[in-house]
Specification:
Blueprint (H helix, E strand, L loop, with lengths): L18 H10 L3 H14 L3 E3 L6 H9 L1 H11 L5 H18 L6 H16 L8 H10 L5 H11 L12 H5 L8 H12 L11 H7 L8 H10 L1 H5 L3 H8 L3 H12 L21 E6 L2 E6 L8 E3 L2 H7 L5 H38 L1 H6 L9 H8 L3 H8 L3 E4 L2 E4 L7 E3 L5 E3 H14 L8 H10 L6 H10 L5 H4 L3
Parallel strand pairs: 2-5
Antiparallel strand pairs: 1-4, 2-3, 5-6, 7-8
Helix pairs in contact: 1-17, 4-5, 4-16, 5-17, 7-8, 8-10, 11-12, 12-15, 16-17, 17-19, 17-20, 19-20, 22-23
Length: 486
Amino acid sequence: MRIDTVLSPQLRQQMKLAPQVIQSIEILQLPMLALVEHVQQELMENPVLEEVADEEKDEQKTDEQKTLDEELTEGKNQEEAQEDEEFKRLGEMADDWGDYFSQTNIKRSDAVDERDRKQEALENTAAGSMSLQDYLLGQLSIMELDDTFMAICENIIYSINDIGYLAYPLEEIVEPIEMPVSIEQANKALEIIQGMEPLGVGARNLKECLLLQLDERDPDYIIAKELISNHLEDVETKKYKLIAKKLGYNLELIKKVIEFIKTLNPKPGSLFGNERIPYVTPEVKVDCVDGKYEVTLVGDHNLPRIYISSFYKDVLVGKGYDINTRRYIRKKIESARWLIDAIEQRKGTLYKVAAKIVEMQTQFFEEGTLALRTLKMQDVADAVGIHVSTVSRAIAHKYVQTPKGIFELKYFFTGGFMNADGNMESWEATRQKLLKIVEEEDKSSPLSDEEIAAKLREMGGDIARRTVTKYRRSMKIPSSRKRKEC
């Protein structure tokens, strides 16, 4: 059998997205901080892009804009015949270049507001967090200690782990010190560290950490110390009556002191870290004005305001520039236009999607989570007239500030079930009902998952026990045995 290689042409249809469409999709799903970084990168890489900085340039740029089309046309007549097609495309570009160029036509008051917003953002940006070790060394530096104790204390500080506990035995910590150190000196140095802020730092275990946070001047100090030292396991399993019987105190006093113990920090070092504390910046804001909920976009204050530089029109039409140079500049201008278009399209899409979400979830803004209705992305997509994938990208990593708090936009999309009234009820509302049932239960005889399911069914929801178990675990609610207070 002979095998030959044969070339045969085939005709087939294939969908291929244009570069500007791909860019629009990418920019739509970027959160604001990532978008700011992307635009700043484009400003560095694309020479035709400039950022609005000085309002004094506005009048000059507006005047240049008026003559832009005329100069492009004159340039076409001056070029060689072989370049006519290039200038035709440049002329078409010039027809709407003014829309991008005119973005720099900003009033002085707008420019001042822009600077004020940047200053406000700078003042409200979280500073780099200080590590626990740096914080402790700072306190140590103002103490008057001899060289021996200073060296011991420093070694102890560097041996404290991220949650604030001593990571190694004292003997191992002081062993590398060149000068001889007794165990008594090591213990004295540890007392110095344990007297620093945050309270509880330098402890060797949980009990010591909690005891270090007690104040001997507190009238309940003796009871609190006893509970932590000898009854911590009973406290964890909520055997309050048993503790009261053993110690000879009334139950109410025991519960009061236990509530205080719960306010102590078991991980004092967790207040510090080597990384910046993460935070979210809402891009959408919802306000109630005259009984109606209004949606505004508020997240783009830090986004650079960009425009296409008028300088490069001279490169396009001026003498002394070859066709390759003009082609390069034309491509860069097209890229800049796509970017500006994509950013504007992102704003429009995000606003339309957010406004429709607010309209469909009005009851939530009036009554809270229990009134959150079931909502699918397809519902919003159909109402707005866009593809469901566009809705998914528009809400990705976006947050909204509302009278009820700050929420991720995807929070408002939730499945549900048909309740006894024939209405759809969201799973989030069911979770809130579950939490309310647990909070109001008799702690001496907490409800089992089956009993919670029965109560939910009484409230109109056909919920299975296994569903209650799944939700309870996801909400980090202990089992009935661990919730029981003896």
